[in-house]
């Protein structure tokens, strides 16, 4: 927090001045955005603030145990209420958060917007922006923030934060994992979070359907020697037929980073709306897949990023193209 004291103090003042605070998690919520929102709920409740929480999509079953997650609503009516402060968590853009249309006419004299994130492509859309790209997760940013404020990291806060940190670091193994992430995880375990339970619930919970979906993706792996990349794809009909969720797809690209000596991993998934979603990963120090995703109108981090393009996936003779 050394380099972000001004932002940390500004957020503190904004909270002190606020009666009603709206917390936002991004659409298709993951453990990082939900862990962040739930940690805020615990802290702000203890300070007697009235808290509302919004997320466009429902909380996934495996994260519904997080204390405070039952407060999240998908009802946009909340944007018509008198809210003093809005805190958006883990969203590289307002569109990614799913709230761009709801905030288009925000009265900036009444409502302050805080943007807390770790995506390097974040354009700083808030009035106060606490964006730390070297943090493994937004939950790590929030942990640094609460610690800087000398707030007590209670058991519910530790539980919520460690869920996000463990998920975003792939159980403290991916390149985003730093000395700080390990120290943060250690501190959260000391504060009462159950590391074993979190790993079991989030990353190790693979159903038969999830593994069948993985099987389809693995059978299509293709190495492109020109770019030294490995790619595969999944059609949304295949995922639907197996009844898998968005999170089962998530793990595939991370697992593929186990392949040594490959520069870029790409997993494509066709969407119901006719678009194609791509996830990019790299374990190479000199490669920035965040920049690569920007070329396709997406964004993300140096080591993990994503994009969405309109198009159709055509497969012929073991060759596939987006047209
Ligand atoms: Mn995150």
SSE map:
Blueprint: H1 5-17, E1 20-25, H2 31-46, E2 50-54, E3 72-73, E4 85-89, H3 94-97, H4 100-103, E5 112-117, E6 128-131, H5 138-148, H6 155-168, H7 179-190, H8 195-201, H9 208-219, E7 222-224, E8 229-234, H10 236-242, H11 246-256, E9 264-270, E10 275-281, H12 289-295, E11 299-300, E12 304-310, E13 313-316, E14 319-322
Parallel strand pairs: 1-2, 1-4, 2-3, 4-5, 5-6, 8-9
Antiparallel strand pairs: 7-8, 9-10, 10-12, 11-12, 13-14
Helix pairs in contact: 2-6, 5-6, 6-7
The protein binds manganese (II) ion (MN).
Could you please describe the fold and organization of this structure?
- By secondary structure, this protein is of the alpha/beta class.
- It has two domains: 2-201, inorganic pyrophosphatase (n-terminal core) (Alpha-Beta Complex), CATH 3.90.1640.10; 209-322, Diaminopimelate Epimerase, Chain A, domain 1 (Roll).
- Helices cover 37% and strands 21% of the residues.
- The protein is built from twelve helices and 14 strands.
- Strands 3-2-1-4-5-6 form a six-stranded parallel beta sheet, with helices on one face.
- The longest helix is centred in the N-terminal third of the chain and has 16 residues, at 31-46.
- It starts with a helix and ends with a strand.
- The model has no long low-confidence stretch (mean pLDDT 92).
- The protein binds manganese (II) ion.
- Manganese (II) ion binds next to loops.
- Manganese (II) ion binds at residues 32, 90, 118, 137-138, 168.
């Amino acid at each position: 927090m050394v380099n972000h004291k001004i932002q940390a103090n500004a957020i503190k003042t904004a909270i002190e001045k606020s009666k009603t605070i709206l917390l936002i998690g991004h659409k298709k919520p993951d453990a990082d955005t939900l862990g962040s929102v739930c940690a805020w709920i615990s802290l702000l409740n203890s300070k007697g603030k009235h808290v509302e929480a919004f997320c466009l999509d429902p909380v996934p079953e495996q994260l519904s145990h997080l204390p405070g997650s039952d407060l999240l609503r998908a009802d946009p009516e909340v944007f018509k209420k008198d809210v003093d402060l809005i805190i958006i968590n883990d969203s590289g853009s307002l569109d990614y958060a799913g709230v761009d249309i709801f905030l288009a006419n925000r009265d900036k004299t009444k409502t302050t917007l805080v943007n807390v994130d770790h995506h390097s492509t974040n354009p700083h859309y808030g009035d106060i922006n606490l964006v730390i790209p070297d943090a493994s997760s937004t939950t790590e940013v929030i942990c640094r923030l609460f610690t800087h404020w000398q707030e007590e990291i209670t058991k519910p806060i530790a539980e919520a934060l460690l869920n996000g940190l463990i998920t975003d670091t792939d159980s403290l193994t991916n390149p985003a994992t730093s000395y700080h992430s390990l120290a943060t995880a250690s501190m959260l375990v000391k504060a009462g979070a159950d590391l074993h339970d979190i790993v079991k619930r989030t990353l190790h919970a693979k159903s038969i359907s999830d593994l069948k979906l993985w099987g389809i993706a693995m059978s299509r792996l293709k190495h492109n020697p020109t770019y030294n990349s490995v790619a595969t794809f999944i059609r949304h009909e295949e995922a639907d037929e197996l009844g898998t969720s968005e999170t089962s797809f998530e793990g595939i690209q991370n697992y593929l980073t186990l392949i040594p000596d490959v520069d870029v991993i790409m997993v494509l998934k066709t969407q119901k709306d006719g678009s194609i979603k791509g996830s990019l990963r790299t374990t190479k120090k000199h490669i920035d897949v965040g920049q690569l995703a920007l070329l396709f109108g997406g964004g993300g981090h140096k080591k993990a990023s994503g994009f969405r393009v309109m198009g159709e996936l055509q497969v012929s003779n073991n060759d596939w193209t987006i047209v």
